Amino acid sequence: MTAMDVLRMLGDGLVDAFSMFWETLWALFLGFALSGAVQAFVSRARMQRMLGDHRPATLAKATFWGMVSSSCSYAASALAKTLFRRGADFTTSLVFMIASTNLVIELGLVLWLLLGWQFALAELVGGAIMIALIGLIGPRVLGGRTGESARDHLDRFESGGSHEHQHDHGGAAHDEVPLRQRLRSREGWGDAAGYMISDLTMIRKELVIGFVVAGFITVLVPDAVWQSLFATGHGFWSSLENVVVGPFLAIISFVCSVGNVPLAATLWHGGASFGGVVAFVFADLIALPLLVIYRRYFGTRVTLRILALFWATMSAAGLAVEYLFRWVRIPEPEPIHAMTGHGIAWDHTTWLNLAALVLFAVMYGLYRARRRSAGAAGKYAKDPVCGMQVEIANAPAARIRGGETFYFCSDRCARRFDERALPEERNDEMSDHHGMSHDPNGTHRDPVCGMAVSPETAAASAEYDGQTYYFCSTGCRTAFDLKPEAFLAAR
């Protein structure tokens, strides 16, 4: 193979990647715009009050709230962890996480465009089957002592020497203003635009990786390779092997959220079964980086149980959908390559994309105006690592550096922020966290996490040794009550 052949193949891979992206551009913008609107206008506090058990009605509510709380896989895991620590049932929290990544608008639209309407329908039907299975099996696998162990490990992770904490004192902002009034307000749509832009920013790497990897795999990997991975010609046993292998490829692919759909299209073209591709799409929540996060949250033993539960139910859902569709005679889409290798053509897709770009420009204008508005101050923050818009009252993690507080969508982003800090910045941060408890401007330092807290807005307070201490959250107050001497000695 000559150098020209290599360059030609690389060029073909990039063209295929761009063609898949262009085919789905309008769907991505529309899906994220609708997702942003729902996140801006639906109260998260209401969600948290409704998920305290794993009854069928509660699981249905968790599924609905997950569907309207579109997230990347990392942010979804952080939000599910937050719900669990605030009292939600463990199984119900996992159902919420699955729905918020696998049953969302943008995923369905991209599946429809790249793979066919059958896969978009399979997403909904298979998602319902998977959630039903988790609702049935989850309490037996993750309930009782296992759930208590997970909660204890999470409490130690959140408060034992860590600056990460939960803000339990917020989340009511949407309840204070009637929905109809918010829908008519420029501020409300500015919030929606902020969610849309930040969500796109948050998964930009996953999207780029997903399309580029899919484009190059299409060109560089022969169909024979996929056919060797996915068994064919053995009826049920081939289907069973495919739905087991699909999640394994998701684990090692490192691509999450919508970014794994282009790779799923490549697998479908390469000969994977219908159920195997469905199982692969569902398995974005067990990619290796997320398993590492689960281990930090809940411990190794609980993480292995989550992995086994997810893998089994994702495979079972893929297999069930494949045979259910055969039974009702829904035809499988042809594994075609129509979306690749063509670049831009002046057809209906191009016009839809141009309309989507206009929508994006309008939403981006609202986003910029909102950032300049003083009314947004103190309500939202931008995760400095991934760019996600974070409600300050519900931020899963926060850091203080140089007198400024930064908020994060997940503990993963907070740790990455810590890793980027220079040694002198870390020293400044430690000084911020363990210095004087009272500042000249009237604010106090939370003795657990070091966050600046105003007595008027503090979530909790405690008296100890004749002095009053103020806390940013009830979680920090609980940690302080358990070992006040340790936190005060570290100041």
From TrEMBL:
Location of the TRASH domain: 383-421, 446-484
Amino-acid biosynthesis is among the record's keywords: no
SMART domains with a match to the protein in the record: TRASH
Disordered: annotated segments: 153-173
Protein name: TRASH domain-containing protein
Family the entry assigns: Belongs to the UPF0718 family.
Keywords assigned: Cell membrane, Membrane, Transmembrane, Transmembrane helix
Keyword Transmembrane helix: yes
Membrane topology per record: Multi-pass membrane protein
InterPro entries: DUF318, Ferritin-like_SF, RNR-like, TRASH_dom, UPF0718_permease, YHS_dom
Taxonomy, superkingdom: Bacteria
Segments passing through the bilayer: 20-42, 62-84, 90-114, 121-142, 207-231, 243-268, 274-294, 306-328, 348-367
Location (main, coarse): membrane
Gene3D superfamilies in the record: Ribonucleotide Reductase, subunit A (1.10.620.20)
Any one Pfam family match given in the protein's UniProt record, by short name: ArsP_1
Localization of this protein: Cell membrane
Organism encoding this protein: Gryllotalpicola koreensis
